Amino acid sequence: MDVAPAEHVACWFAQGCAAVDQLRSRTAERVEGVLGDDAELTAAVLAAQDGDEDAFRAVYRAVQPRLLGYIRTLVGEPDAEDVASEAWLQIARDLDRFSGDADRFRGWAARIARNRSLDHLRMRSRRPAIGGDETELTARAAESDTAGDAIEALDTDRTMSLIAQLPQDQAEAVVLRVVVGLDAKSAAQTLGKRPGAVRTAAHRGLKRLAELLGAEHPGA
């Protein structure tokens, strides 16, 4: 089965499990009404390959929010929009070479985004925006009294920065699995790793994120 068995264990924390569920559902809601399901995205990609500009715009609106979130995890907020633009230029240029359904398209787009992000980091001689000080991490988590409050702020820099504070392998795995919506196999292809390694990293990252999102202020 694609989901790691450990993810079926009843609740890492009562609020934490609910937080992860809300994280998944709210991410999906951000593109609801643009392309309702994978069949529509697949059809839009095929139409875009035939030169339909409206279809390409629909694909962009459906995929861009999640893709941008992934890029932010890699390069940080100041440069994410520029890197995303570079990624979409390549996606448009190479679209006729793509073959597959909606899930494969998301994985293909994520690989392009990751490569453009790494190119950007090499060019700027910068480290990925992953890691950080544990004190800062705790302080950020404490800004929300409940996991639900933190999930409500998912679109804000504050919450995305929490994901970015995870270890790099965990942060990428979480964003690809939960935000971008890839399965373990597609995420593994994007990262150049084995699916089992991605499942493990995603599980650990989700567990840590659930702890952060569900934690109350120390001493409260």
Describe the protein.
The protein is an all-alpha fold and 220 residues long. Helices cover 70% and strands 0% of the residues. The chain folds into two domains: 121 residues, no CATH class; 97 residues, RNA polymerase sigma factor, region 2, helix turn helix motif (Rna Polymerase Sigma Factor, Chain: A, Orthogonal Bundle), CATH 1.10.1740.10. Helix 3 runs antiparallel to helix 4 and helix 3 packs antiparallel against helix 9. The radius of gyration is 17 Å and the shape is globular. The termini are far apart.
Task: Give me the secondary-structure topology.
Layout: H1 14-29, H2 38-49, H3 53-75, H4 77-94, H5 102-124, H6 134-141, H7 147-152, H8 157-164, H9 168-180, H10 184-191, H11 195-214
Helix pairs in contact: 1-11, 2-3, 3-4, 3-5, 3-8, 3-9, 4-5, 5-10, 9-11, 10-11
**H and E order:** HHHHHHHHHHH
Structural class estimated from helices and strands: mainly alpha
Low confidence ranges: 1-17, 26-34, 130-156, 216-220
Fraction of helical residues: over 70%
Radius of gyration: 17 Å
Number of structural units classed as domains: 2
Average pLDDT value? 73
Family: Belongs to the sigma-70 factor family. ECF subfamily.
Domain RNA polymerase sigma factor 70 region 4 type: 160-209
InterPro entries: RNA_pol_sigma-70-like, RNA_pol_sigma-70_dom, RNA_pol_sigma70_r2, RNA_pol_sigma70_r4_t2, RNA_pol_sigma_r2, RNA_pol_sigma_r3/r4-like, WH-like_DNA-bd_sf
GO molecular function: DNA binding; sigma factor activity
Keywords:
single chain, 220 residues, mainly alpha, Rna Polymerase Sigma Factor, Chain: A, 0% strand, disordered N terminus
